[in-house]
């Protein structure tokens, strides 16, 4: 069982959610809210289901990621009612609820049936969840304005959530260290993945996302999803982006390691890490997250110059002409919580110069974000640059050499505090 401090923070968390939800329901004219945990859809033309991970609002209240066909009812002035699905089933194991103190804050029921619990006197009822599961449920389904307001209740993490995210980081770091050692010992991507799972004691299907494990040029595919079972003749680089789910909460951590003898690539990794440290230090209340993204492009420009990859262009020209975008094509990060790309990051669309940015808000205490700059050698993005009018500024020989190392990403999970920030990933590494 987790320590008593965490368990008592969880009781506070439930109380805080009750207050936040009551206010949202009141503001939107509802008396009660029914939340579906969700269920894995069966694959088309098959009798197998997709892997299940629960619906965000249900996880926010309970942290129970693997429980299908459960329902949670929230009403003003009542304990939340948690109805768990417990079928008689000799094919599958019944998931057990750990007997923990937070359950006393709920009215708990068990049902053999998948249907929502039959309830009276709910007044104006809203129901949220996967529409496929709501067909027979009365009430207003997924009203947009209410759903947006509920998403907003997840933006400022409670002390309990931050403690869970910190622990998810500690677990992930154990996996990252083991993965790095396996890479340096010559392991294949497949073996590195097994090593990570063994160290984190979490199967990949239960992790927040499938691990991204790229050796050599595979490190240049942003969400590389195949694992070579054979190690390459020479292991030049490893990019591993992998997290752990703990009590519903996700870590999302990336590390890049240069192989033995890869001095130039190793220097670039160090340079990007120095930039990443500076970007993490920018995290503070009142800072526009888009500014951190823009500062990343300036830092990438300086790094491209210092590494001799690009010459004869100022940092400003490299940014305005799209050179940095070719090397760093994604956003600097996103919110993190019970979903790896947590909700409510974009109340307005991303700006034109940052189309893939998932978070465009001013930072406030309690928000948790990732900071994940990258520098990649992606043929489809670099070829237009090399064959275009700026081609003469590119160091083709060096780009070609480093293309075999794929790319670099370094990603930490950072909490905005009252006075600055707390880097959960570096804390876990210390
Ligand atoms: N692991 C996916 C991401 O970093 O956003
Ligand atoms: Mn991320
Ligand atoms: Mn990641």
Describe this structure in words.
It is a single chain. This protein folds into two domains: 4-152, Creatine Amidinohydrolase, Chain A, domain 1, CATH 3.40.350; 159-429, Creatinase/methionine aminopeptidase superfamily (Creatine Amidinohydrolase). The chain contains twelve helices and 16 strands. Helix 6 (263-282) runs antiparallel to helix 7 (289-306). The two termini are 25 Å apart. It is globular, with a radius of gyration of 23 Å. The strands form five sheets. The protein has a six-stranded mixed β-sheet, with helices on one face. The protein has a three-stranded antiparallel β-sheet with strand order 7-8-11. The longest helix has 26 residues, at 159-184. By secondary structure, the chain is an alpha+beta fold.
Oligomer: single chain
Low-confidence stretches: none
Q: Tell me how many strands there are.
A: 16
| Rg over alpha carbons | 23 Å
Hetero compounds: glycine, manganese (II) ion
End-to-end CA span: 25 Å
Overall mean confidence score, pLDDT? 97
The number of domains is 2
**CATH architecture name of the largest domain:** Alpha-Beta Complex
Most strands sheet: 6 strands, mixed
- Give the helices and strands as they follow along the chain: HEHEEEEEHHHEEEEEHHHHEEHHEEEH
Widest beta sheet: strand line-up: 4-3-2-1-5-6
What is the CATH T-level topology of the largest domain?
Creatine Amidinohydrolase
By secondary-structure content and strand pairing, the structural class works out as alpha+beta
CATH class of the largest domain: Alpha Beta
State the helix count: 12
- CATH-defined superfamily of the largest domain: Creatinase/methionine aminopeptidase superfamily
In helices, the fraction of residues equals 25-40%
């Amino acid at each position: 069982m987790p320590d008593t401090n965490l368990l008592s923070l969880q009781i506070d968390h439930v109380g805080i959610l009750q207050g936040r939800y009551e206010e949202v329901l009141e503001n939107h004219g509802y008396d009660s809210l029914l939340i579906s945990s969700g269920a894995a859809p069966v694959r088309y033309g098959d009798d197998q289901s997709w892997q299940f991970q629960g619906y965000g609002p249900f996880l926010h209240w309970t942290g129970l990621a693997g429980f299908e066909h459960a329902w949670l009812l929230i009403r003003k002035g009542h304990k939340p009612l948690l109805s768990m699905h417990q079928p008689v089933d000799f094919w599958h194991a019944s998931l057990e609820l750990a007997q923990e103190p937070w359950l006393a804050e709920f009215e708990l029921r068990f049902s053999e049936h998948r249907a929502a619990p039959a309830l009276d006197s709910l007044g104006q009822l809203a129901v949220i969840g996967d529409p496929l599961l709501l067909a027979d449920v009365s009430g207003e389904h997924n009203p947009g304005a209410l759903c947006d307001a509920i998403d907003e209740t997840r933006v400022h993490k409670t002390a309990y959530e931050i403690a869970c995210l910190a622990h998810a980081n500690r677990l992930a770091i154990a996996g990252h260290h083991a993965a790095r050692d396996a890479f340096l010992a010559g392991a294949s991507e497949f073996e590195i993945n097994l090593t990570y799972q063994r160290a984190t004691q979490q199967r990949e299907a239960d992790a927040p996302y499938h691990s991204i494990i790229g050796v050599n040029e595979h490190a240049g595919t942003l969400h590389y999803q195949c694992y070579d079972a054979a190690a390459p003749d020479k292991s030049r680089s490893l990019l591993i982006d992998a997290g752990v789910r703990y009590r519903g909460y996700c870590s999302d951590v990336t590390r890049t390691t240069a192989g033995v003898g890869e001095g130039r690539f190793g220097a670039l990794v160090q340079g990007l890490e120095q930039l990443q440290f500076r970007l993490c230090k920018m995290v503070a209340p009142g800072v526009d997250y888009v500014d951190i993204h823009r500062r990343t492009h300036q830092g990438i420009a300086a790094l491209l110059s210092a590494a001799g990859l690009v010459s004869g262009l100022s940092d400003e020209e490299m940014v305005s002409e799209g050179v940095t975008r070719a090397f760093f094509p994604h956003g600097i990060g996103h919110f993190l919580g019970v979903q790896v790309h947590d909700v409510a990051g974009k109340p307005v669309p991303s700006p034109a110069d940052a189309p893939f940015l998932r978070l465009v808000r001013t930072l406030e205490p309690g928000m948790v974000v990732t900071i994940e700059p990258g520098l990649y050698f992606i043929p489809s993005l670099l070829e237009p640059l090399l064959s275009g009018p700026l081609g003469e500024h590119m160091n083709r020989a060096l780009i070609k050499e480093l293309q075999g190392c794929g790319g670099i990403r370094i990603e930490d999970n950072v909490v905005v505090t009252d006075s600055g920030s707390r880097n959960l990933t570096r804390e876990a590494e210390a």
